[in-house]
Amino acid sequence: MNTSKLKSTLKRVAAANRPELADLEYLLGLTDDRELALVYQYADEVRAQYCGSGIWLRGVVEFSSYCRNNCLYCGLNAGNKDLPRYRLNAEEILAAAEQIAGGAIKTIVLQSGEDPELDPLWLRDLIIKIKSRFDLAVTLSVGERSRQDYYLWRAVGADRYLLKIETSDRKLYESLHPDMSFTQRLRCLGELKDLGYQVGSGNIVGLKGQSLKQIARDILFFQENDFDMIGIGPFIPHQATALAAESKADLQLTLKTLALTRIVTKNTYLPATTALGSLGADYRREGLKAGANVLMPNFTPQPYRKYYEIYPGKRCINENAGDCGPCMEIMAGQINRNIDYSVGHTLKRGGEHGQKGTNY
Ligand code: SF4
After folding, report:
1. Is residue 202 situated within a structural domain?
2. Residue 266's domain spans which residues?
C-alpha cells in the first residue's frame, strides 16, 4: 500500500477547484481494504467539517407507481405489465404527511414515476394543503416536466426537487433511456435551479458498460452544477428489465463514489440510500461512515409499498409508516452520530433558501 501517494492524492482532490480526472480514477480504482478505509475516513472528516455530525431525515411518500418511460434498469418501466400499479389520493398522502410531521421529521418527499396522468393543478393544491397544515419542507421527485409545471409548484412553496442525471455520459444515458434525451434532462435541471428550487441529482453506480472514468466524470458533473443534494445509488438488477441478467453493483465502488463525492462537493446533502441498504445487507451504516448525512425513511402507506419496486429486495417494504424513525435513531447512535431534526435546507450559498430564481 502506497500511503503517501494516497494521502497526497486525497488532499489534492479536496483542495482543487476542479480535480484531475486521473486522480479520481485512481481513487475509484483502489481495492486494498486499508486504502479504502483511509478514503472513507477522509470523507467522514470532510463531512464532519462541512456538515457537522447530524443525520437529516426525509420522509418519502411514493404516491404513484405509474410511469410512461422504459428506463432499462427500473422495475417501474412502462413495459412491466406484471407490476400492479397504484396512485394514492390526496387524503392518503395528507395522512402520510401527518405521520411524518408527527415523527418530528421536517421534510416530505413526494415521489412518483413519470405518471402521464399527474395533474399539475392537483399537485399544486396538494402542496398548498401540506404547507398550510404541517411544518414541512416539500421535496418533489416526479421526473421531467414542463417549465410551467415546475413554476406552478415552486410558486406555492415547493422547496426542493430531485432529478437524478443517472449518468453524466450522454451516450450511456441515451442507451439506458430509450424514450428520453440527455439534452432534455439537462434542460430540466437548469430550469429547476433557475426557479429557485434546491436541486438534488445523483447517479447509478455499477451500470452495464460504465467505466471508472465515467463515474469520475459524474463526480465532476456534480461539482460543476453545485447540487444541493446528491444521491449515489448502486445498480441492482430487476427481473422485469432488460438488464435482468447483469450483476449488481460492487459495494466498495458505490462507497468510493459516495466518499469522493463528499470530498469533492463538501457541503452537499448525501443520503445513505435505501438501495445501499438493499444491496444484500443493510450497508447504510457504511454509507454514513463514508460521507453520507441523510436517511430517507419510507412513509408510503401499506399495502402499496411493495408495488413501488424500482429494484428487488428493497428494504422496509413490510414495515408500517412510522416504524423507521426509532430504527434510524438506533443506527445514528451506533456510529456516534445524532439525528438532526432541523429542516435541513441547503448548506450551499451560505445556507440561503427561499430566494427566488431570476426568472421566477
Ligand atoms: S427510473 Fe423513473 S422514469 Fe425511469 S422507468 Fe423508473 S420510475 Fe420511470
Report:
1. yes
2. 19-341
Are the C-beta atoms of residues 20 and 14 closer than 8 Å to each other? no
Query: 278-306: per-residue pLDDT in tens?
Result: 887 889 999 999 999 999 999 999 999 99
* Pocket lining: 294 vs ligand 1, CB cutoff 6 Å: no
Q: The C-alpha cell of 164 is what?
A: 437524478
What is the CA angle 108-230-282, rounded to 5?
Answer: 80
- Claim: this prediction has a pTM higher than 0.70: yes
**Is 341:105 a contact under the CB 8 Å cutoff?**
yes
Beta-carbon count within 10 A of 345 CB: 19
Is residue 11 situated within a structural domain?
A: no
pLDDT at 355: 45
Task: State how many domains the chain has.
Answer: 1
Q: What is the CATH number of the domain that holds 123?
A: 3.20.20.70
By three-state DSSP, how is residue 198 classified? Answer: strand
237 CB near ligand 1 (under 6 Å): no
Residues 224-252: pLDDT tens digits? 999 999 999 999 999 999 999 999 999 99
Looking at the DSSP assignment, which residues form a beta bridge with residue 57? 295
Which letter does DSSP use for residue 18 in this model? S
Report yes or no on 347 lying in a domain: no
Q: How many helices, marked H, and strands, marked E, lie in the chain?
A: 12, 9
Q: Which residues of the chain have pLDDT under 50?
A: 354-360
Residue 76 near residue 292 (C-beta atoms within 8 A): no
Residue whose CA is closest, atom 2 of ligand 1? 113
| 70 Cα–ligand 1 center, Å | 7
Residues β-bridged to residue 141: 111
Ligand 1 center to 331 CA (angstroms): 30
SS3 6: helix
* Any atom of ligand 1 within 6 Å of the Cβ of 75: no
Q: How far is the CA of 103 from the centre of ligand 1 (A)?
A: 29
Determine phi and psi for 59, rounding to 5 degrees: -85, 120
